[in-house]
Amino acid sequence: MAEGDNRSTNLLAVETASLEEQLQGWGEVMLVADKVLRWEKAWFPPAIVGVVSLVFLIIYYLDPSVLSGVSCFVMFLCLADYLVPILAPRIFGSNKWTTEQQQRFHEICSNVVKTRRRAVGWWKRLFTLKEEKPKMYFVTMIISLAAVAWVGQQVHNLLLTCLIVTFLLLLPGLNQHGIISKYIGMAKREINKLLKQKEKKNE
């Protein structure tokens, strides 16, 4: 068991080091984005909501076709991938890179690797469920996809995408400030109260 844990830890370290090397040119930008996403200042959350809303308002106003939208998005990614490593050191100053910043950059890359591992793990569990319990897999997928289709039919696609993107960008801050765990705890307490009330009625 200990050998398996050591192997997993070593693999995590190798993947993290590889990701750090790949994203080295994005280091300064990632640190700034990390501060914004973790809400280090009180005005960061409304700023995130405002910027996302503005971007989607522009998309709504321009009303591009799917092909044009995808092409512009990929073109923006290509430009960012080319320009950011060149401009970031000049804007932020590579000589200001400290040990603390390097440590935080390492933590960010490690978290990205862990998140990627979790996503792959959930994907593998889904296929395991398909192989071991095909009926449950079929029913779960049909109900989930039907629910998503119904929501998509009721809410405008662009508005739904805007809400999802906003939530995902606010999620690190919600988690950092304990807001998610707070409401999950409240929900658990309410569920426990309901279960206790049912047990009392049954008695």
Give a verbal description of the structure.
With 203 residues, this protein is mostly helical. The protein has one domain (1-155). The protein has helices at 2-22, 27-37, 44-62, 66-93, 99-132, 134-154, 157-176, 179-202. Helix 1 crosses helix 5 (99-132). The protein is globular. The termini are far apart. The relative contact order is 0.09. The model has no long low-confidence stretch (mean pLDDT 86).
Reconstruct the topology from this structure:
Layout: H1 2-22, H2 27-37, H3 44-62, H4 66-93, H5 99-132, H6 134-154, H7 157-176, H8 179-202
User: Helix and strand succession?
Assistant: HHHHHHHH
Q: Please, how many helices?
A: 8
Radius of gyration: 22 Å
- Helicity range: over 70%
Which structural category fits the helices and strands?
mainly alpha
Low-confidence stretches: none
User: Looking at the structure, what is the overall shape?
Assistant: globular
Q: What value does the average pLDDT take?
A: 86
Largest sheet: none
State the distance separating the first and last CA atoms.
Answer: 45 Å
How much strand content do the residues show? under 5%
Total domain count: 1
Tally the beta strands.
Answer: 0
